[in-house]
Every structure is written in C-alpha cells, then in structure tokens.
Specification:
Elements lengths: L1 H7 L6 E2 H8 L5 H18 L4 E4 L2 E4 L6 H14 L5 H9 L11 H27 L3 H14 L4 H13 L3 H19 L5 H6 L2 E2 L6 E4 L2 E4 L5 E2 L4
Antiparallel strand pairs: 1-3, 2-3, 4-7, 5-6
Amino acid sequence: MLAYLALDQIAEPDCDRGVLAERLWPDATADRSRASLRTALWRIRQASPALVHGAGGRVRLGADVRVDVHEFRGNAERMLSAQQDCPRDRAALLARTNDLLPGWDETWLLLAREQLRQMRLHALEVDARKLAERGRYPEAIDVMLAVVAEEPLRESAQAALIEAHLCEGNVVEARRQLRIFTDLLWTELSIRPSPELFGRVGMVAPPPPTPRSVNGHVALRNRRLLPHPSA
C-alpha cells in the first residue's frame, strides 16, 4: 500500500479508497477488497500513525513522509532541464542502478518501473551531451561508459558515447566503439545499428553477415566496416 501511494502521489496528492482497494486486491470482490484495505490501514497506523492519512474517502501518505522515488525523479528532471552543471544529481543517478522494487510483479508497478528506468537513462544521456558541449569530454565519456555497461544494446547510449569520442577528436575510439556495438547487436539480436550512427563516424553500414556451413556448424563471415565514400 505504501509503495502504491508513493507512486500514485506523483500524479495526484491522494487516492480514492475504492480505487486503492481495487488496485491492491484486484482478484477480490469489492466488499472483500475494502475490508482488506481497512485492515491494512489499521496495521500501518498501529506501527506508525504518521505514515498514512485518510479523510473523506481518500487516502494519502503523511505530510512528513519522504519518498526516495520522488527525490529520484527530481534528480532526473533537474538534469533534463537545467542549463548549469548538476554534479549531485548526476552522482545520485549513477549510483541508482537497481530497478524500482525488483522482484515485485504487480501490474500497477510495471509501468512506473519502466518510466523511471527510461527517465534515468535519458537524463544521463542528455547530461553527457551537455558535458561534451562544455568541453568536459572525460566526464561525458565516463558517464556514458557507465550507462553502456548497464544497457549495452541501447543505441542512444552508444551514440552519446561515440559522439563524446568524436567531440574529443578521437575518431579511432569512436569507430572502435561502433565496431564493438555492431558485433554485440548482431550477436544478440541479429540486427545492425542505424545507418545514421555509421554516418556519424564516416562509415557505411556493412551488409549482414552471410551464414555458411563449416564442418557441420553455421559460421558467419566477418565483414569489415567500410569507410564512408566521402571520408
């Protein structure tokens, strides 16, 4: 219940009792779910009266309750909108590598978990590009290496890392990173990065490897990444 109220509070300050009961006990009848809600509220208040507040058919977290998810969103929102450097927000997002409530599979949690995950990754990508624009290339590269280590198949993260290498003047590093990403993406998903990503480093996307039989096994011919004609 506390987790649901904390996430619901992002959109509105309190929650209707009937909606709360239905979300938390979806397989129960209306009467049974409301009874379960009353029992849960009583137990929470017995443990800590200030945790939840109910009035007029609505329930909310206590006014003095701090929620780490709200602080997390604040970190990300500041990084997405701020023009100045946000070192504390950056450190907070880099340190938060676990998914929201891992191991929980409640339907109401899945969307919120993915929204927070995407928000964090996007904020770090934006932050890295801002760092590169300010000429702080090592920091930008460090940020994106951390993201790529977590999400190696995320093309936007790989693109931000490659762009940081290019901004620093390291074309060879950018091409090396693209080769690594290309091989990984083909191995895991049998797809190629977008042509736009190859174009950024002055390369043409190679054709897919051609399967052939070798000693009864399927092997893939190695293809070199071709330099862009204009390079």
